[in-house]
Amino acid sequence: MEIAKTIGTVVITYTIHYASTKIYSHVCVPDGVWGYIQGFLMLGSPVCTAMLNFASSTQSSYGTIITMVLSRLLIDVTTYSAIDRPKASTGPD
Hints:
Blueprint: H1 2-28, H2 32-42, H3 46-82
């Protein structure tokens, strides 16, 4: 269950990041000369500000999630290696 929650968190975070950057690119700074002009008018709008904030926040969150997952894997591997390793049999009891 814990793995499913972690994967779900990564997918949701990345989806929000991807959507916000695409919306920002399309609405706030579209391609072309007209897009360049439109960018002067739209860049400070609440929608563009929100999309840029979402993109920035989710980028930071995504990096934190990846770091936590890798740290957890490292801890699990080293803990298993040091503590939970099955003991060798020394002979019949």
